[in-house]
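Contributing new records

If you add data, match the layout below exactly. Sequence lines come first and carry their own label; structure lines follow with theirs. Keep one chain per record. Anything else will be rejected by the validation script.
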Amino acid sequence: MIFFTIIGVAGLLLGAASTENEYYFICTCIGIGSGFWAMFITIAAEQFGTNIRSTAATTIPNMVRGLVPVMLLGFDFFKADYGVITAATIIAVIVFGSSIYATITIDETHNRDMDFVE
C-alpha cells in the first residue's frame, strides 16, 4: 500500500495528470493507498504489551502528526534552493524511505508472548 501511495504521489509531482479526470484518478489512488495508516497503527501497537497497547495505539498517530511541522521546516529549507516540486520530492523520499525501512526492519510478533510487564 505504501508503494501504491508512492506511485500516486509521484504522479502528482511529475505532472502526470493533464486533465481533471486524470487528477481525480490519481487522488483516488492515493486515497486507496493511504489505507496503510490503519495497518501502521495496528503493527505499531502490537510492539507493546497488552497493558499499554491502547495507549500506544492512540499516541503513535499523534507522534506522526507532530512531525508535520518538522516536514514543513524541511520543505521550506529545500524550497529556497530547489523549488517547490523538488523540495516536495526530497521530503517525500525521506518520509517514504523511512517508512519502508521501518516496515522492513520491524520485529515479527507472531508466536511471541505479548503479556509484557512494563
